[in-house]
C-alpha cells in the first residue's frame, strides 16, 4: 500500500447536513447554482486542511492519504510532542513508527459527514488521542462510494473497512506515536454500520487487546462478511451499542440483530454469560430521535456520548449525566431484543 500526504492551510469547520448535505445558498454572482451542483465531497474538499488547535489546547492535524486507491482525509488530535517530525507539526518530537504512551480513538462519522467536521472526540481524553476519518465517497457515506444514501446497503463496506485498518496500521504510525495496545473505534450512524457490518468481523482481530473496543452509536449491522478469528477479539475487546427510544425505523430491527450476532460469536468463543456481559453492553434509554442521546439534538447528543467515552468504554461505571439511567452498561445477555417507543 502506498500513502501520499498533502497539507493545506488552516482548518475550517463545515455545517454539512446529516444524510444528504444541502449546499448553502448564495445570491452573489450565481454562486448558489454553482454550489448546488457540487457534491458533498467537493464541498468538503473546498474546506482548507492544515494545523489548528483542539478544545484542550492540543494540536489538530488535518491531512489526507491515499490508501488502497482511496483518498482518505483524516484529522489527528494530540500533543505536539506525540507527532512525528514527518508530520510537519511544530514542536513534534516523535520518530516515525515509534511507540507512544497515548492510545487512539478513531471515529467514523454518519452519512453526510457532520461528525467529521464537529470532531466530537478531539482532544486527549483519558489517555486517548482523537482521530476522525472522512468517508471517500461523493455523498460522504461510509461503505458506499457512489450515489445517494441507500439505507442499510453498504456495497463498498469491505473496501472501506480495509482502508480504515490500513490507515491505522500503516499510515498513522508515520505521523503520530501511539500505543497500539490502546486502540478504540467509534461509529456514528452510517459509520457504525460499516464498523459493525465489515470492520469488526474482518479487521478487529488484528487490533484486539484488553485495551481495545468499539462504540457503536445510533446504528449497527450484523456481520456482512465472514468473521475472522473471533476468538482473538471476543474475549478482550469491548463492544457497546448505544441507541435511543425513537431510533430510525430501518435501524430498529438491525441493531438487535447485530447484538445477537456478536453475542453468539462470543458464546462460540467459549465466554460465559457473565464474561459476555462485561464486554458487550447495550443501552437505548434516551427518549430522543436518531443520535439524540441528550434528547435535544444530533450533534449535541453525539458530543454527550463522546464526552463520556471513558465511563462507557474504559472501565467506568457507565454513568452519563444527561441520560436517565443508573448506567448505560447493561449486559446484552437477555437484552438482545431492544424495545423502542417510536421512530424518528
From the structure provided, what is the oligomeric state, counting identical versus distinct chains? single chain
Question: Helices and strands: which structural class?
Answer: alpha/beta
CATH superfamily of the domain at 100-331: Alpha/Beta hydrolase fold, catalytic domain
Mean pLDDT: 91
Fraction of helical residues? 25-40%
Spatial order of strands in the largest sheet: 1-2-3-5-4-6-7-8-9-10
CATH top level of the domain at 100-331 is Alpha Beta
Biggest sheet record: 10 strands, mixed
Shape, per Cα inertia axes: globular
How many helices in DSSP terms?
Answer: 10
CATH topology of the domain at 100-331: Rossmann fold
Structure characterization notes:
By secondary structure, the protein is α/β, with parallel strands linked by helices. It has a domain at 100-331: 3-Layer(aba) Sandwich (Rossmann fold), CATH 3.40.50. Helix content is 26%, strand content 17%. It has helices at residues 31-36, 40-45, 114-118, 157-175, 190-203, 230-233, 254-268, 273-279, 298-307, 309-313; strands at 50-53, 59-67, 70-78, 103-108, 128-134, 183-188, 213-217, 238-242, 280-283, 330-331. A ten-stranded mixed sheet has the order 1-2-3-5-4-6-7-8-9-10. Strand 1 (50-53) and strand 2 form a beta hairpin. Helix 4 (157-175) packs across helix 5. The longest helix has 19 residues, at 157-175. The chain starts with 30 loop residues before the first helix and ends in a 13-residue tail after the last strand.
Amino acid at each position: 500500500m502506498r500513502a501520499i500526504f498533502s497539507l493545506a492551510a488552516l482548518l475550517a469547520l463545515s455545517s454539512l447536513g446529516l444524510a444528504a448535505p444541502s449546499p448553502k445558498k448564495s445570491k452573489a454572482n450565481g454562486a448558489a447554482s454553482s454550489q448546488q451542483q457540487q457534491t458533498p465531497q467537493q464541498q468538503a474538499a473546498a474546506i482548507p486542511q492544515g494545523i489548528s488547535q483542539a478544545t484542550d489546547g492540543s494540536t489538530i492535524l488535518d491531512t489526507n492519504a491515499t490508501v488502497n486507491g482511496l483518498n482518505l482525509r483524516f484529522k489527528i488530535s494530540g500533543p505536539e510532542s506525540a507527532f512525528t517530525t514527518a508530520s510537519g507539526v511544530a514542536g513534534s518530537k516523535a520518530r516515525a513508527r515509534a511507540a507512544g504512551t497515548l492510545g487512539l480513538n478513531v471515529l467514523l462519522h454518519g452519512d453526510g459527514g457532520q461528525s467529521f467536521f464537529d470532531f466530537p472526540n478531539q482532544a486527549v481524553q483519558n489517555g486517548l488521542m482523537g482521530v476522525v476519518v472522512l468517508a471517500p465517497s461523493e455523498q460522504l457515506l461510509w461503505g458506499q462510494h457512489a450515489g445517494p444514501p441507500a439505507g442499510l446497503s453498504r456495497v463498498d463496506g469491505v473496501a472501506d473497512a480495509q482502508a480504515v485498518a490500513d490507515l491505522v496500521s500503516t499510515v498513522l504510525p508515520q505521523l503520530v506515536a501511539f500505543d497500539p495496545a490502546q486502540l478504540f473505534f467509534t461509529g456514528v450512524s452510517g459509520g457504525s454500520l460499516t464498523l459493525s457490518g465489515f470492520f469488526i468481523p474482518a479487521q478487529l482481530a488484528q487490533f484486539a487487546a484488553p485495551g481495545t473496543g468499539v462504540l457503536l452509536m445510533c446504528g449497527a449491522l450484523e456481520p456482512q462478511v465472514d468473521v475472522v478469528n473471533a476468538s482473538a477479539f471476543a474475549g478482550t475487546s469491548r463492544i457497546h451499542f448505544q441507541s435511543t427510544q425513537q431510533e430510525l425505523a430501518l435501524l430498529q430491527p438491525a441493531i438487535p440483530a447485530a447484538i445477537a450476532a456478536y453475542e453468539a460469536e462470543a458464546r462460540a468463543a467459549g465466554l460465559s454469560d457473565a464474561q459476555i456481559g462485561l464486554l458487550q453492553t447495550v443501552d437505548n434509554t434516551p427518549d430522543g430521535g436518531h443520535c439524540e442521546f441528550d434528547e435535544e439534538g444530533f450533534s449535541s447528543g453525539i458530543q454527550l456520548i463522546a464526552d463520556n467515552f471513558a465511563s462507557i468504554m474504559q472501565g467506568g461505571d457507565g454513568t452519563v449525566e444527561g441520560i436517565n439511567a443508573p448506567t448505560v452498561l447493561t449486559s446484552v445477555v437477555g437484552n438482545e431484543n431492544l424495545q423502542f417507543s417510536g421512530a424518528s
